Write the structure tokens for this entry.
Amino acid sequence: MSKSARTPDVLVIGAGAAGLACARDLLTAGLDVEVVEASDGVGGRMRTDRVDGFVVDRGFQVFNTSYPQVKRRLALRGLRPVPFTPGVLVHAADRGTLRFGDPSRRPGTLPGLLTGRLAGPRDLAALGVLSARTALGPAAALKRAPERTTRTALADAGFSEAFVERFFRPFLSGVFLEDGLETSSRFFHLVWRSMLRGTLCLPAEGIGAVPLALADALPPGTVRLETPVAALTEDGAVTEDGREVAAPTVVVATGWGPAARLLPGLPVPDGRTVTTYYHVAPRPPLREPTLLVDERRRFLNTCVLSEVVAGFAPRGSALVATSVLGTDTEGRQRTVLDALAEAYHADTGGWDLLTVRTVPDALPAMAPPQPLSRTSRFGPGRHVCGDHRATGSVQGALASGARAAREILRDRR
Ligand SMILES: Cc1cc2nc3c(=O)[nH]c(=O)nc-3n(C[C@H](O)[C@H](O)[C@H](O)COP(=O)(O)OP(=O)(O)OC[C@H]3O[C@@H](n4cnc5c(N)ncnc54)[C@H](O)[C@@H]3O)c2cc1C
């Protein structure tokens, strides 16, 4: 077994958002840090590929500008974020396509919400109370609020079953990656707050630009790619090619699956799987940068990506991203194309499937009780961070990395 020449103060395993944030905070505090990453690039679940001239994220995701950790760490302008239209379109089973707009930003969308269309007066009143309570109060109060499933919280907030089924359930399925509204109400309230306070957008170069910007803030040579860690040792870790990396402190920032193997006994959540179909259409089926969800939940959400960022598709074609829960099972592509034909009122017969991205552990399950932040300490000199230790989001991953750095610095004092 060979030994690494360098002995950093801290070895961070995994260069996703959490590992990169942790490394950055430790370096800023003056520690020597090395990050080892199994794959050929930084970003983990936030990576972008180029496929035949199209820009394709490894699973469709959106970027929210209001996340506190995002604002703290990233120069947003450098990412050239391009916004979605506020709100979403809902393809309703029996009433065509309805717009759920945010009337505070687009007053013209209010009539679409009114009685007989998407929401009744009771739902509008409940929406006003929910939005005021989540957007205006301190986030700390939401984190301490009584915890239930999101379904129970919505019923308790006075929403009608019809509105929950027509709007919240299809919309939130794409956020939680589960379609039973079983996710913790605390997470739901934080998500709702971030949507009201921020803007959903995509970086002009794809979601992968976010971790690339985080990595750019590290000194050159901090991250070593294509270096999978096989096991932790008493003195640090050993890589799959048999090299020992000694370090007094090790941070496992690998996502929960690999973390459970490296840290036996670590409690880990179930994972949510999502598949995104990327289709190329000869022309955009909708000329708007917006999310479209399906009341019947044949897909989680769809959007014409090239209407959000024109550069995602070569001139003369349109790129459509459509996500579904679970994997790409047999016959699913046909069902999805049929549902898209209905939702977009388009002939999808001439669409070509560009690529399919399935992400097995895309998000951790977050059923109540759901501690929104867990300690990184696992044992002497051993820490763990990632979205599974906070919330399943970029905010959660970054905050968990930041917490690990704080706890390491405290332990060294
Ligand atoms: C399809 C999809 C849609 C999403 N949508 C949203 C959204 O709209 N909004 C939002 O806020 N969040 C969203 N998320 C969640 C968000 O992307 C994640 O919460 C976040 O990226 C997790 O970061 P992480 O650092 O905790 O873990 P990861 O990104 O999983 O990083 C772990 C890293 O560790 C590396 N690694 C693993 N094992 C080893 C090993 N043995 N040795 C060395 N390295 C190892 C991996 O290669 C990876 O780079 C979405 C995620 C997906 C996949």
